[in-house]
Amino acid sequence: MSDPAGRRKETFTSAIEKAATKAFQPSGDDESRSEGQRELGSLLSRANTMALMSALSKLTQPERVPGWLRIHLMDILTLLPQRPDGVRATLEFVFSVHPSGTVKSSEAGAPQKQGANITMEALKMATNLLSAPPATVPPEQWFPGVAPQLLALLDGKDGPDLAKAAAYVIGFGVLGRKQFGAPGMAYLDEDL
């Protein structure tokens, strides 16, 4: 029996790989790279954030693509939390794929109502991803993109688990880090 959803996902991943290769090919000419960047930009702008996280996570695995391409794909992946739904997507993605969250129902203490099993290890990983800006982004640019999303999750409209996760990210990830959470940090005074 064929798996159309799996094939569609692989086709999307392949389309990103093809466009990114064209966009960043070191030996490509300027016209070809520009065309590839337009194709990649179009793909990225139309894509669902969770689908992008899944595809880019696959493409950035060691030995999956050449090193020169992996660097560019990692840059794109690390900026996904800046999308309007990026914080929630990051939390949900990490909770769904983190090895500690894949507990068999027979091993779980209580049945899950919905979604992934949120473990402390997965929460810490998500917190690190959201509370530390990538090396290419200054905190003054990072936090205005993620802080409003974290605050919106605190209201509980997206569920108590995401509200608790947002509170953890804010309390332990952002405010708990001296370089970001110290009083007087201008980018936090306005956002958090």
Helices and strands in order:
Elements: H1 4-24, H2 30-46, H3 49-59, H4 67-79, H5 86-97, H6 120-131, H7 139-154, H8 160-174, H9 178-181, H10 186-191
Question: How would you sum up this structure, described in words?
Answer:
This protein is mainly α and 192 residues long. The protein is built from ten helices and no strands. It has helices spanning 4-24, 30-46, 49-59, 67-79, 86-97, 120-131, 139-154, 160-174, 178-181, 186-191. Helix 1 (4-24) packs antiparallel against helix 2 (30-46) and helix 1 (4-24) crosses helix 3. It is globular.
Features:
192 residues; 66% helix
Largest sheet: none
Low-confidence stretches: 103-115
The helix count comes to 10
Radius of gyration: 18 Å
The mean pLDDT is 84
**From N to C, what is the helix and strand string?**
HHHHHHHHHH
Supply the helix-strand structural class.
mainly alpha
Query: Termini separation (Å)?
Result: 50 Å
The proportion of residues in beta strands is under 5%
Shape: globular
How many DSSP E strands?
0
Helical content stands at 55-70%
Q: In short, what is this structure?
A:
The chain is mainly α. The protein is 66% helix and 0% strand.
